[in-house]
Design brief:
Blueprint lengths: L4 E6 L3 H12 L4 E7 L2 H11 L3 E4 L7 H11 L5 E6 L3 H10 L4 E4 L3 H13 L7 H12 L15 H11 L4 H8 L3 H15 L4 H10 L7
Helix pairs in contact: 2-3, 7-9, 7-10, 8-9
Length: 218
């Protein structure tokens, strides 16, 4: 049996939650362990059942999904938040990441992407569509920091390459193949990067790379 990924569903529509539960429980490595209909209820349920991944809607009664995502991240329980919403990327993707979310899936493509996205964020990686990465790059291009004054100056060229490709969503094995080094060496570089930048989670690496302009559109 694969390691079980425990999931909390957060959406104010019970019918949608039921459909998602049926979809996810059909997978051997996924199990829905709780449901919530509001942001406040989601925070309480996270404290109670300590899920690995929260599937979070944004538009709900009460504090809403973004504020709930922020408060869940602040709990420090290691729970990953994956946003599932109908909203346009342009308006909500950046706030989701800044709130501490680990990814973004649109409801229109949930049947295709949601299971992969859950497994991705459960591995402490970030799930982003290529279009979303390009959107964020355009948004940050004008505000790129001066490299000489930026913490980027603390990193070697190879560390910058590993950081950029991590932010693009590549796994350690994929980065190793692209840079002709072993996955273990990639992990060593990533640990060194996080130590230098005083970061704790891979999602923070993604936000740092976006803010400092390390990502390049091919």
């Amino acid at each position: 049996m694969p390691d079980l990924i425990r999931i909390l569903l957060v959406d104010d529509h019970a019918v949608l939650r039921a459909g998602l539960k049926a979809l996810l429980d059909a997978e051997d490595d996924l199990r829905v362990v709780g449901e919530a209909g509001t942001g406040e209820e989601a925070i309480d349920k996270v404290k109670l059942v300590k899920p690995d991944v929260v599937i979070m809607d944004l538009s709900m009664p009460g504090i809403g999904g973004l504020e709930a995502t922020k408060k869940i991240a602040e709990l420090g329980l290691g729970t990953k938040v994956l946003v599932l919403t109908v909203h346009a990327e342009e308006e909500y993707l950046l706030p989701v990441l800044e709130a501490g979310g680990s990814g973004y899936v649109t409801k229109t493509s949930a049947d295709i992407d949601l299971i992969q996205a859950i497994r991705t964020v459960a591995r402490d990686e970030v799930f982003l569509y290529p279009s979303a990465t390009r959107l964020l790059l355009r948004r940050y291009k004008q505000a790129e920091e001066d490299r000489k004054e930026s913490p980027v100056a603390l990193l070697s060229e190879r560390e910058r390459e590993v950081l950029a490709q991590t932010a693009e969503g590549f796994s350690s094995a994929e980065i190793g193949k692209r840079l002709f080094i072993s996955p273990k060496t990639v992990d060593t570089y990533r640990s060194r990067i996080m130590e230098k930048l005083k970061l704790n989670h891979r999602s923070e690496l993604v936000r740092f790379a976006l803010r400092t302009g390390l990502l390049k559109v091919e």
